[in-house]
Every structure is written in structure tokens, then in C-alpha cells.
Request: fold
Amino acid sequence: MNGTRASVRLSISSLRAHKRRFAGTFVAVLLGVAFLTGTLVMGDTLRASFDTMFTNANAGTDAVVRGADVITVAGETRGTRQPVSTALVKRIERTPGVAAAAPDIQGAGQLIGADGKPIGGQGPPTLAGNWIDDPELNPYRLAAGRAPAAPGEVVINRGAADRGGLRIGDTTVLRTPDPVHVRIVGLATFGGQDGMGQVTYTAMTQADAEKYLTPKPGEASAIQVRAGPGTGQRELVDALRPVLPKGVEAVTGQAAAAENRDMISGAFLGLFTTLLLVFSGIVLLVATFSIHNTFAIVVAQRTRENALLRALGAARRQVVVATLVEATAVAVIASAAGLAGGIGIAAGLQALFPAVGFPFPDGSLVIGAVSLLLPLAVGVLVCLGSALLPAVRAGRTAPLAVLRESAVDDSGASRPRAVTGLVLLVASVGAALGGTLAPSVWLSAAGAVAALAAFVILGPVAATYAVRTLGAPLGRLRGVTGGLARRNALRSPRRTASTATALMIGVAVVSLFTVFGASLKATMNRTVDRSFAGDVAISAPAFGAGGSGLSPRLAPAVGRLPQVATAVGLGKGVAEVDGAGRALTVTDPAALGRVFDLGRVDGSLTGFGTNGIAVSAAEAAERGLRPGSPVRLTFTDGARQDFTVRAVYDRPELAGDYVITRRAWAPHRAQDSDSLIAVSFAPGVSTADGRAAVAKTAAAYGNPDVQTRGEYAESSAGAIDMMLTLVYALLALAVLIALLGIANTLTLALHERTRELGLLRAVGQTRSQLRSMVRWESVLVAAFGTAGGLLLGGFLGWVLVEASAGDTAVAFDLPPLRLLAVALVGIAAGALAGLRPARRAARLDVLRAIAAQ
Amino acid sequence: MTTTVPISEPAPAATPAPAARVVDAVKLYGAGDTRVRALDGVSVDFPAGRFTAIMGPSGSGKSTLMHCAAGLDTLTSGSAFIGDTDISALDDRRLTLLRRSRIGFVFQSFNLLPTLTVAENITLPLDLAGERPDREWLDTLVDTVGLRDRLHHRPGELSGGQQQRVAVARAFAGSPDVVFADEPTGNLDSRSGQEVLRLLGRTVRQTARTVVMVTHDPVAAAHADEVVFLADGRLVDRMPDPTAERVLDRFKSFAPHPSRRR
Reply:
């Protein structure tokens, strides 16, 4: 044990002597851990706040009566249920144990703000419903004004009022999707907050809600029930069960609140935190390479010291332990600082969110044990894991190494390394190709991981060639200074490669997303190009669950314009086909064929009636359907209906997989709306004229956007740009850590070359020549990392695009300008990383540098 | 300090004019109790076309004298000249430019950049200055140091003696006014050391160059045209046409002061 104590003492004295060397490691661990902690704490805090909010809001509801059958379509967060009859309310109220019951009507309704623009709709839902007078059953509380009593009167949530600049007494329009003129008589809060997150809510009288939000009066989405004194939620549900008709169920208020909460947590928080955790992972991966590099260099620089220790009788284990103890000390201190930083980030965001209009629920930060222990463990593990190899290498130092002068290290470019790397590279390309040809996500993922590993392994081999090539113009441009920079970057290919690897991974992820985003956009453009044969489109901003769609009366109104040949509205429906939830396109199939290019169509698009259906070729092949085949659909109201396939079409991109008529859907629908209206003009009508005419008509229906084909494609892709911006912001941190790594490695390498720098200065290198030499070396290393990252990112992007394509045809797009920008940022970042080491190196005293050991 | 003499002014042609000299050179290190007087009013000329050795025991100030004369270090008071240029008046940039155009260096060890070939190491000062090397002169130098077959090797592939010979070639490559050598044989075995010393002497005599060498080895000093003795930071003697025995005898008369190292 004494031996270990000696090791610990050694490492502590070494740490104290070389605090600077570990600054980079420290910062890398700190940032990674802070990011992870911040994510976890914020996730927990949000989840807890939503918990409290839902529990408070629904505290008075003891049971919810609702349709038993639910149809869930892939990609939607919440299933669709059959409505229940409001006549049930009377029967429920007579049931023993029930204190009160109220129908709850829920639908979509988008408010227009004082500036004429819709409020919200960019993600969170825009809800409308009936105002429930029993305050115990209503999750909303009146904060000002009064409840709606007359037709056209509404209460809206305070958050929506603030955002839309609406006040009590104002009149505005509610799109349901038909424009309804409403007067605001009250403002409401939800669970003590201005709203349920960003969700907007409009409550009308029950009569209005039934009129605008349900297909026919006398129906409600659910019935909320309050128990009398002494009746528990379970007992209440048990008591209700016998009085409910078939197809209607009762669940406890707690269960319903939990479902709501899980929906928000699952859909919004889940996605949000997963995204952040993935980026924490990337940041930590980049940090790992940075840290590993620092330790590798420190150990290399300490070869003589370690050899002396070994010569004096230190056991191999003691040398290893000394290095690991150093790593642990750095890891623990940096992780602890990271924890504090992460909690600070979460607190900052909690303060910042409300300021940018996102009501972050009140309540103190929730800091769970996991949020503390996990980042700490990850920080220490990353640090120790990165230091392990260098430590073992330190232990292997031969005692004789004391006598050896350290020279240029050209290890790393070994043949086994080259062979292993190449084999992996070939395997990764093979796996990726295989994953594309025979769609398999696992095979593609294996290919991606193998590619990453191959790039990391091949780094030192490629470094020599790449730096030589990239640096070739340097000698000509910058003379001997450039030449020296190039030689320095080449002198240890392994070190150059591992320094560049951190940046390579950062740049790879950036280019991966860039390529993926561009490909999605290209696909969207091509889809619109190929499939949209109309002139203009009217589309509801349909990003996320927001908005209320387009009025079903708009398409006929536009169709009556003299400038318009065809105007066809497309609505959405759901049904189960062979037990699986499927989205339906509800439209006029014959007209659809005139504005969409459906590709090859087998059968006819006319004469569908109430039992005709058109199916996409892919779906038809899967289910063995041909024109004339029978197919059974089950709707949310439990109705089963047999349809006959009238047509099979090739291109489902815009039309969806199943098309039925409005008349066939009408009996099963809840709120009637279109999500897209495709318009083609009469011959001889210019786009500008036609568009103006259509826009004029649309103005009366809540003024939705009228877009040309190009604009339509672009707006469909708008969400992608938003996502990319967020991704870039998150990845900036990873790139920052990579740069710190380059700066740190450079500082350490320069320290190693002190005597060389002294010699150069003595024989006549000016300070500015020396600075320029260091900067160019940094730029070369960064250029190497950036080039590798672009290659790797491009390849991974291709794999991702192909893997996510499935059956549908996608366009793979390499956006040259954006990738060029990524490359320039990477290289400029390299120059930036070299600034400080260059300044420090230029300050060296010539004599002392020459005399340095 | 103001610069009055442009650095590009050529060295005077008159034979007795020194290639380098220091006047009343004082160099202090540290402060208070730990203050050390490394040079204590030294004035000495290094004549052009001659090979001068600076000798003295450890701590006599001989290395400091050379560093200050060569512009690698600055004097506390007094002045140092290369030709007619007062280098104590130059800023870092001018000093650097002067070093690369008018001074050559040979250090005790680590004279070469490991990343450059022998040929590139030799022309490094010229390359840094962006000047075209004089091919003929380089050829002469390469032949003199006898490394023609090693021009494209890396320093790591050469012996210590060969590396020092490359350093000598580099020091003379730019035809400097004066070459300073700091214990150039300190790290070599006696045979390699002899070769390097003979090379320095030959180059001075055959091509009329100026060399100033610091050494504590009487055998090395015997290769010089004249030996300058330093003790306790003062110039104590000069000996023309030295031999090893005479130098050793003279050397024994200075007892080193252990309290005044440096």
C-alpha cells in the first residue's frame, strides 16, 4: 500500500507542477458534464412541473367517460376516439356516488390575434372546447371576466391573449376551421399557469361547441364526472360501468391525467430530452478524444521522468497508478464543476424561457440523484477511460528510455493499422450498401459505426498523406514558415490524427445533419415537382399538432372562381385496415387526379360513391389488393364498412396511401376540415392573376396562405431549417471542445519543442514568422480534421438518408455551399485555436528556450 | 534608446577593425541578496578574420559574454557591437534580422531541426530571410564539412559529430560577419570534437571568416588564433597563438569561486 501512496504523492506533485497542461482536459470534461447535467435537471424539472400542473388542473375530476375504441396512426401522439352522447350526462348524474357530471367537447380552434395573424400553431395544439361551469371539473379557472353565456362569447387562456394582444371585450375570429366571430368575455389559467405550455385554448358555450366542434349536436369528446363525498375514484368507476352503453368506458381521473401528462412528456419532453442527451453524447465523445490526446502527450513528454522512476525501482503498476490518479483528480474536480455548471444552465433556462414567451412552469429545480450521479460517473469514466491507454503505455516505459533522446515519432502509420482500418472501411461500405438494398436499419447502423471506427483507426495513416496534400500549397505561399508548419504537423501522425479526430467527429455530425436536411428538402421539392400538377396550393401551417386546418367550404368557393379550373380539398381521416391504424385522405378522387400526378393509375378514379377506395401501389402490394378487391375499414365510431378498391396508384407522396370520398367519411368524422387545397387555373390565367383571385376568396375563410408550387415546397421544408438551426447551435459546443483540444495539443507540442523554437529564433526567425508557423500548423490540423469530418459526415448522411427512406424514393443531396461554409468554419476555427499557443510560443526567451531540457 | 546606426551598413574594410566587440559590458542577474554580477565591466574586441576562444572556469561569465555579444541576451549596462552596429540599441525584430543576416551560431547540442533535411537545415537562416543562397559558396561549404552524401538525410540519421559539422556549415551559410560557437565540442567524443575544431579553424583561415568560441577545454582553445581569459566576470588575460599546455597552465592559476557561479 505504501507503493500506492508514493504513486499518489507523485501524481499530486505532478498535477501541481503542470496545472496548465490539464486546463484543456478540465474544460472538456466540465463542458460535457455541464451539458449532460443541465439536460437531466431541466428534463426532470419540466416533467415535475407538468406533473404538478396536470394534477392541480384535474384534481376535481374523479372519472372520465369516453369512447372505448381508439385508433392510433403511426406518427400521431394521441389516438382518435369515438365521441359519446351528451344524453349520457343525465344518466350518469343519477348514478349513486356521482356529485356532478359535465360533457367535455374538445376540438381544434385557432384564434386570430389583434394583428390579424393566427396565434400559435407552430407545434403545440390549438384547442377549442366548451366552458364547463362546475369549477371542480374544469381544468381552467377564470382569472378575469366571466364565463361565456351567449352565442359567440368565449373565454381564452391568458397566455394566448397575451401573445395575440387580445383583451376582454375584443372581438376576433376563431378558425374551427370555418371562421367564427367571437367576443372575448373572460381569461383563464390552467393549473395556475397562463396556459398548458404553449397550447392555446378557447372555451365557448356548450351549444356553440356542439355547433362548431362536433359533427352533430348531442355529442361530446368525453364526460367528466365528480364523485360525491365518501366515494373514491375506483368506486366511482365501478359504479359507472353498469350504466354505460357498449363502446363507452370509464377511467379514473388520475389515470386520465396520467395519460395527458404522458402524452406531453412522451411527445414533447421525450423528444426534447432525447435530442439533448444525444448531443451530450456527441459532446462527450469529442471530449473523450481531446482528453485522451492530452494524456497521451503528457505521458510521452514524461517518458524520461517515468523511465527514471522505473530505473530507480518503481513497479510498472505504480507508474500506471500515478497516471490514473492524476486523471481521477482532474475528472472529479472537473465533473464537480460541471455539475454546478449544469445546474446553473438549467436555472438560467428556467429564467430565460418565460422571457422568450415560453411559459416554463414555476417551481424549484428538481435535482434528482440520477441527475447528479450519472453525469459525475460519466465524467469520471470518460476521463479514466481516456487516460487508461496512455497510463498503460507509461507503465511500459523501459528504464533505458532515460538515455534515449526523443526524436520524431512516426509510429502510428503501421501496416496492421492501415490494414485493419481499410478492412473496416470496406466492411462499413458493404454493410451500408447492404442496408440500402435490403432495407435494414441495423445493417445501416452497423455500417455507420464501422465507418466511424475506420476513420478513427485510419486517421494516423491518412494524416501523413492528407497533411502533405493539404499543406502542399503552403510551402509555396508562405515560404519556409509554411514549410516548417507542414513538417511540424507531419512529425507525429498519430498525434495529429487524434487531435484532428475530435474536430472530425464534430464536423462529421454537422455535415451529417446538413446533408440529411438538404436531402429531405430535395425530396420535398422533387415530390412537389413530380406529384403536384396544380398551380397554387392553400395549406394550413401543419407543423406539429397546431392549427385547425382549412374550412371545407373554401375549396368549393375557390372552385367557383372563373379563373380556376379545379380546386380540390384534401382532408384527413383515420381508420383501421386489417387491425392497423391508417391515415386516410378524404377528397374528391376524380378531381385529385387532375391536380396531382399520381403516376400510373390502375382502375378508375371516378364513381367511388360511399364505398370506393383508392390505394397506393406499395400498400396494395403489401396487402395483395387489386382493383375490385374488397377491403374492410373500421372507423373510430366502431362502424365497420366494406369498401371496394377502385384504383391503385403509384405515387403516395402527397396523396397518402388510402383515398376515400367526403361522402364516405362524413358519417365518421368529428370536425370537418381540409389540410390542403390544390388549385389549377383555367387555361390562359396567369399565376399572378389566379393567385390574387384565390387569395381574395381565402381572406374570408381565416386568410390562409396561398402558395405557388415553389413556395409550397419551401414551406413544407420550413421545419427542417428550424431543426437544422437548433442542431447547429447544439453542435457548436462540440466543435468548441474540439478546438480547445487542438489548442491544448499545440501548447503541449510546443512545450516539447521549446529548444527547437529557441534555435529557430536564434538563427533568425522573427516573432511574427514563429507565430505564423504555429498558426499554420493549427490550420493544417484543423483542415485535416475538417476534411475527414466532411467525408465521414457525407457518407453517414448518405447512409441515414437511404436508411430512413424505406420504400419511398428519396433524393440524396450534397449542398455544396453549406458544406463549403462548414469547411471554412472548421479551418477558420483552426486558425483561432492556434492564436493563443502561437502568442505564447513567440514570447519565449531565446536563451532560456535553447537551454531548456 | 535610439538607433543611430543602420544595421545594413557594411562592416568597415580596414583590417584591424573588430568584427564584434563589447565595451564596459556589465550584466547583472537577479536582485537584492541573490544578485549576481555575471559580467563586471568587460571590454574586448574580436578581430575580423580571426578565430578567438573565450576561456574561463564555470561561472566566469564566458557564456554570458558570448550571448550578449551575439545579441541573444541584453547587457545591463555597456554596449555590444557587431561591426559598427550598436546592438544594445536594437529592438527584438531588428535584432532577429541582424542575427539571421550577420551572425552564425553553433550551440553545444540541439543545433538542427529534426524535421528538416541536412540541406534544409544548412540553408534555414537564408530561407527564413527569404534570400537565395549562393550556390558556389554552399558547395564549398558542403565539401569542407564533408557531408555531400548526407544532404538529404534527417539529423536523426547522423552521428553527433556529423550533426555538429552540419551546424558549422549552417553557421557559415549566409556568409555572416561573425560566427559564435558555444562549447561546440562539449557533447562530442574527442575524435569528433577534433574534427569540428579543425573545421572551424580551416574555415577561418581559408575563407577569412571570424569565429568566436566559448570553451572550457584547453585542447579546444588551442585551435584558436587567440585565447581570451575570463574570471569572475572580468577579462583577466589574452594569449595569442595558444597551445594546450600553455592554456592549461594559465587556466590553473584561476581558482574557481564556488560562491559566484554563473
